[in-house]
Amino acid sequence: MTREDLIAICERATNVPWTEWGNRDSPGATMKLGECWALLKAGCPFEIRYGNTHEAPCITNEKTIWIDVHFTDFTGFEYGERLNAEETFYLPTPKRLDEVAGGDWY
Length: 106
Hints:
Helix content is 38%, strand content 18%.
């Protein structure tokens, strides 16, 4: 998947009205997607987690895309350490979004 593919997934997945959220974790999942979107839009390096390089359960499958995004945080700017931070995010796959037809994917 390309950066543009992942950005499009973030945009599509966050386009669910809060009145449609159906799980106690839906707000948090939506906020994390927003963070992932912002980092991807900023051009931060990323790596999709696949089974050949990472262990289950945090590996990409037909329902979920697991992605590590690298960036410079406060400490990095203070001490000049570029790309010193990494965060792991999960995104729904396009198939998963299709299955919920605009509803809550979480």
